[in-house]
Automatic annotation (TrEMBL):
Species in which this protein is naturally found: Lentzea indica
SUPFAM superfamilies xrefs: (Trans)glycosidases (SSF51445)
UniProt cross-references to Pfam families, sorted A to Z: Alpha-amylase
UniProt xrefs under SMART domains: Aamy
Protein name, per record: Malto-oligosyltrehalose synthase
Glycosyl hydrolase family 13 catalytic domain: residues covered: 18-487
């Protein structure tokens, strides 16, 4: 089975089931989608709105329609020539679950004891579930303790710092078979593998998975700006955060106005993580270090993980990343740690420190530093680099050509269920890089009136407000509550600051009633729309398999989850699509119909098959405001940096076209090389040879 032409991500919830997806399938087919890309479909905790808390991997989730509903969905997709891509979660399961309960009842004698990554040296499983420690009862193969002890004493591996998600040992063939048998029997088009960095041996896991599955295989691997997938992994590519960084970056103006020392913030954030919420993991690893005092080993383990330049290494692959981390560590014991890891790169010490480094980076960088370093939050994205402003068209072309040459079937994305903010929020915030002084003056004036006392949250709040405008008090309030607690500066999830929490909760009502906020949001709205259309058209036609996150075929101004899991109104989208199919050319307005036009036209062009990659360059005074390339006789043209462009106009700038008779499929009109003419209706164009 080959890769789909494109995917459309849906988030299954108790209110959006397999039957609901089947009902929406004809709309997706009309839109031009190649495959439905589903959030986890295996049985999860009751009421789950994301499905990553799997409770039983041996059956489709009954709450969503069970196996009958899953079969009916696949039948409907097949009738419409749509594929099915399923998100799977090999790293962890939610506890309690039937296997876990058997372990708690029978201890090491349980047939499932090897299924979970438990340190049995104490003889019992520590369950941090109580408000205060219970009386230790000798007859139990577990002990219940105060919930605060989990971060320092937990003796089973988990998903990040979530105690309810216990790690599964899929490196064991029996465990792999038990957890994968059901989903591999479904005959799906593709699999999206969640969080491979938590696995003991990701490469070995993917090689085993490939023995059982020959379809499209993409992995949620977060790559740094200068990092590549390990070449030994038999996969098609990542889930697209690397492409997101590049596509969004080319629409951001280079500026140093918002510059700061991100790496200092990142380092201190990671250090706080290893000293607090991941202390139990550090201590478990340190006990494996030989010939070094325990506290020294703890310090060395923590320092190495804090200093990783990427999420993790995969020794012997990624040796240079491991060497960098060791070199940056100041503890003398780091040298002993290095020697022991190198001596046995597949041993338990090497394995556990690599598994855990990804947790440190994710919790320290994504979930802490990105909420603390808030100078310009359009760059604070999963896999992003807040210290790198803008990406030149030349660098974009190089990276796109590399993707076409090396991983043409990798997924590309602009919004996901994990992005810190949706693509259209990011596109609007990109405008601020063109008008930094104007924005900072606005922020200063608003802060004087209604500032939040913690400066980094204050900056985040004003940017989020204008980026997601219009937004309700409830939505921005819930977002700021999460952001303030993730930042762990003035308050946190574990140690609440009631006075500060009350200040944050009161802010939305005051800020939303300021007319200057609406005025500034209106100021950046139109250029934000231009950026949105440009980055969407580029994503849908550039190398890789593009994913459309649910609902983002119209404007979508969502913030981080759970805001981005709100219900999608497919009735509105069907109505607009009906009009587009009759030849309607919408205005660029609040309805977002123009984005739907771009998505529908680009997806249908893409289904013809796009191959190769040839950069095209404009000529003239405004040439820097164009991003263009050709693939299989299809030319993508997008406007960039629209504020500066509006000040000087296109003047005599042209895009020389290879050969005569090109038609813009967005408008149906013959294409002109004169960019003022080409872009007189929309800031993007999609050209094909001959008549439309």
């Amino acid at each position: 089975m080959g890769a789909p032409s494109s995917t459309y991500r849906v988030q299954f919830t108790p209110s959006f089931t397999f039957a609901d997806a089947a009902e929406a399938a004809d709309y997706l087919a009309r839109l031009g989608i190649g495959a439905l890309y589903a959030s986890p479909m295996l049985d999860a905790r009751e009421g789950s709105t994301h499905g990553y808390d799997v409770v039983d991997p041996t059956r489709a989730r009954p709450e969503l329609g069970g196996d009958d509903g899953r079969i009916a969905l696949q039948k409907r997709l097949s009738e419409l020539s749509l594929g099915l891509v399923v998100d799977i979660v090999p790293n962890h399961m939610v506890v309690p679950n039937p296997w876990w309960e058997d372990v708690l009842e029978h201890g090491q004698a349980s047939r499932y004891a090897r299924y979970f990554d438990i340190d049995w040296s104490s003889g019992r499983v520590l369950l941090p579930v109580l408000a205060e420690d219970a009386q230790d009862e000798p007859g139990e193969h577990f002990v219940r303790v105060n919930w605060r002890r989990g971060n320092t004493e937990l003796n089973y591996r988990r998903f990040f710092d979530i105690t309810e998600l216990a790690a599964v040992r899929v490196e064991d063939p029996e465990v792999f078979e038990a957890t994968h048998r059901e989903v591999l029997s479904w005959g799906v088009t593709g699999l999206r593998v969640d969080h491979p960095d938590g696995l003991a041996d990701p490469g070995g896991y993917f090689r085993r998975l490939r023995e059982h599955f020959d379809g499209w295989l993409v992995v949620e691997k977060i790559l740094g700006p200068d990092e590549s997938l390990p070449q030994s992994w038999p996969v098609d590519g990542t889930t697209g955060y690397d492409a997101l960084r590049e596509i969004c970056g080319v629409f951001i103006a280079p500026t140093d106005t918002f510059a700061g020392d991100f790496h200092e913030v990142e380092h201190s954030s990671r250090q706080q993580v290893v000293d607090s919420i991941l202390a139990a993991e550090v201590r478990r690893i340190a006990r494996l270090v030989q010939g070094v005092p325990f506290e020294d080993a703890c310090q060395a383990v923590a320092e190495v993980m804090v200093n990783f330049p990427v999420y993790r290494s995969y020794l012997p692959e990624g040796l240079r990343h491991w060497e960098t981390a060791v070199h940056r560590a100041k503890s003398p014991a780091a040298r002993a740690l290095d020697e022991q890891v190198r001596a046995d790169p597949h041993g338990e010490l090497a394995t556990r420190i690599q598994q855990t480094s990804g947790m440190v980076v994710a919790k320290g960088t994504e979930d802490t530093a990105f909420y603390r370093y808030t100078n310009f939050v359009a760059l604070n994205e999963v896999g992003g680099s807040p210290d790198r402003f803008g990406l030149s068209p030349h660098e974009f072309h190089q990276r796109a050509a590399n993707r076409e040459a090396g991983e043409p079937n990798a997924m590309t994305a602009l919004s996901t269920h994990d992005t810190k903010r949706s693509e259209d929020v990011r596109a609007r915030l990109a405008v601020l890089a063109e008008i930094p002084d104007e924005y900072l003056a606005f922020e200063a004036a608003m802060t004087e009136k209604h500032g939040i006392s913690e400066p980094t949250l204050n900056r985040l709040a004003w940017q989020s407000l204008v980026g997601a405008w219009p937004i309700t008090e409830e939505r921005i309030g819930q977002y700021l509550e999460k952001a303030s607690r993730e930042a762990k500066i003035a308050t946190s999830w574990v140690d609440r600051n009631a006075e500060f929490d009350a200040e944050v909760a009161a802010w939305p009502q005051k800020a939303l009633n300021e007319p200057e906020v609406a005025a500034f949001a209106e100021r950046i709205k139109a250029p934000g729309w231009s950026n949105s259309l440009g980055q969407k058209l580029v994503q849908l036609t550039a190398p890789g398999v593009p994913d459309v996150y649910q609902g983002t075929e119209l404007w979508d101004f969502s913030l981080v989850d759970p805001d981005n899991r709100r219900p999608v109104d497919y009735a509105v989208r069907r109505e607009l699509l009906d009009r587009l199919e009759s030849g309607w050319l919408p205005e660029i307005d609040d309805s977002g119909a123009v984005k739907l036009l771009v998505v529908q036209k680009a997806l249908h062009v893409r289904k013809r098959g796009l191959h190769g990659f040839r950069p095209l360059n404009a000529e003239g005074p405004a040439a820097d405001h164009v991003l263009a390339f050709e693939r299989s006789g299809v030319i993508t043209v997008a406007t960039r940096l629209p504020v500066e462009l509006a000040q000087k106009g296109w003047q005599d700038t042209v895009l020389p076209l290879p050969g005569p008779e090109w038609t813009d499929v967005l408008t149906g009109r013959p294409a002109s090389e004169d960019l003022a003419s080409l872009f007189d209706r929309y800031p993007v164009a999609l050209l094909v040879r001959g008549e439309s």
